[in-house]
Amino acid sequence: MGAVALLASTAVSAQVPATQAAPGAGPQPGQRLVVDINGGLSQPMPIAIPAMPTPAAVHTAAGDTAALGQQVAQIVTNDLQGSGLFKPVSASHPVSYPQVTAPEYDYWTTTGASALVQGFVQANGDGTVTVGCYLYDVYQKQELTRQGFVLKPADWRRGAHKCADTVYTRLTGEGPYFDSRVVYVSESGPKNRRIKRLAIMDQDGANHHFLTNGQTIVLTPRYSPNQQEIVYMSYTGNRPRIYTYNIGSGSQKLVVDAPNMTLSPRFSPDGRSIVYSMSVGGNTQIYRVSANGGSPTRLTNAPGINTAPCYSPDGSKIVFESDRSGGQQIYVMNADGSNQHRISFGAGRHATPVWSPRGDLIAFTKIGGGFDVGVMAPDGSGEKILTHGWQDEGPSWSPNGRVIMFFRTGQGSGKADLWSVDLTGTNERRIPTPLDGSDPAWSPLLP
User: Which sign does the torsion angle of CA 5, 10, 15, 19 carry?
Assistant: First the structure.
């Protein structure tokens, strides 16, 4: 993964003003251009993203810079449209390189666009390329922000995602999430002989490749905080145990060499520990072990199944599921196992809880007549169901805590796909994968 260098940025604040412009209608005099983050698909902002010119067409290892400018603009368009908050308008009007910093405001006003994204792709003398990204308020006729990114040609798509993140963050006041990756379980084959491999890709499905060969079933992959490792469950040697996979070297390491089934692993926020479950004598309890292995510490001691642990962002608490009350429900405990208490009530069962990276919500799978994905506050209040598929489960948060990725299994087919939904519950989007996919884990924002 190549580094991305920041070239320049204006000092424009991303703070959302108290008085917001009506999305789609253009800002009123004196108002700044903003996006109603709670409006979802009902009020997307019209935005123009024309092809990005180049000062000189130069062939690079990733292709001609003129062609890259068209592809970068398309990826920015796809990212922003996929968020459900933006509505790209026709942007076939050509933009010359000098116009990147001098937009034709009068023309873009006629397109209905409230915001305009322009940029360029330039080959540098040292073998790198620069992706420049400028955001303009069409009605106020002013620049809102600009950024530039220097990359290896092979990493040009990251420049597009970083540009989309710049626009998203400036106009919504929310953190970025497009420049991130997803690891998941790729599935193929008949229902009774499924091949399950670890796979990794960009959040939009691009740059896909497999990490394991499918000779052994793998489940529940989860990123380390530094994104260098993945912890997961593998049936290597027909023994379900927990391993880590180093993304850089491709090496795998056994973490817990126990005679019993170990499952549902997840890193602590500092990356030093792994929490997981182990089944012994009909009971399943939650344990913590050093990320390097060693002697585990038992955290739960209630009869039944205690599993799916996940730390809070500050590492002080752990949310998990337990059937100690007679059915799957969500519990929270301190990181040392003390103060275990139930937070989910109401109809149905609740499973696979995942703490938001913002700390304000817990995503879960709701089981009751079907499987749906929902969210609730860490104290169990404000339960909200976001999806209504036949079998939706396994939520994972985007880096900014505004979008959830999950997998959806079709009724009767046994085949699953990856989907995302935002917190409004109105913007569902299928994530393309070469084969069937399940159990996604969204990475933090790439460095």
Answer: negative
Indicate the SS3 state at residue 157: helix
Kindly give the confidence (pLDDT) of every residue in the chain, 447 residues in length, as a single tens digit, with 9 standing for 90 and above: 333 333 433 322 222 222 233 333 444 444 567 776 665 445 899 999 999 999 999 999 999 999 999 999 999 999 999 999 999 998 899 999 999 999 999 999 999 999 999 999 999 999 999 999 999 999 999 999 999 999 999 999 999 999 999 999 999 999 999 999 999 999 999 888 899 999 999 999 999 999 999 999 999 999 999 999 999 999 999 999 999 999 999 999 999 889 999 999 999 999 999 999 999 999 999 999 999 999 999 999 999 999 999 999 999 999 999 999 999 999 999 999 999 999 999 889 999 999 999 999 999 999 998 999 999 999 999 999 999 989 999 999 999 999 999 999 988 888 899 999 999 998 999 999 999 999 999 999 999
DSSP string of 308-337, one letter each residue: EEEE-TTSSEEEEEE-TTSS-EEEEEETTS
Order of strands across the sheet with 129-137? 5-6, 142-151, 129-137, 115-123, 45-48, 86-88
The pTM is what?
0.91
Cα–Cα dist 38/88, whole Å: 19
SS3 170: helix
- C-alpha distance from residue 129 to each of 6, 62, 149, 167 (Å): 13, 10, 8, 20
**Separation CA 406–CA 402 (nearest Å):** 14
d(CA 176, CA 225): 17
Residue 207, amino acid: N
Q: Residue 191 is which amino acid?
A: K
